[in-house]
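User: Study the shape:
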Amino acid sequence: MGQRPLMHKLSIWQQNVNKSPSCQHDIISNIHLTTLGINLVALQEPVLSGSGITIAVRDWITIYPTNHANNPLKTRSVTLIKASVNSDSWSQLYFPSSDVTVTQITGNWGKITVFNILYITMERVKKR
């Protein structure tokens, strides 16, 4: 069996799901992403179980922030990569924040670094 080719096109879907299970499930299990050719999903404020695992389906590989294991319930961004993407074409880069997931992807077009960041304004922090 031959190795899968590199991506020709990178398409990203970004959304803050506000910890809504129905919103997150609808996004990742919907045929709409496939129809649009989306191969990377950047989620902010994902749904987390009591053990810090997010909702995912088999079509996607979940990438947590690099410090996720230290405090899983503090994770506030996750990146999903389509399982059909060649695993040799991407890697996670270290970043010391639960709000940021960094992925580097190589395609026929070159190399790109994607920063998935939950950005919270001071106004929003005061409301919490």
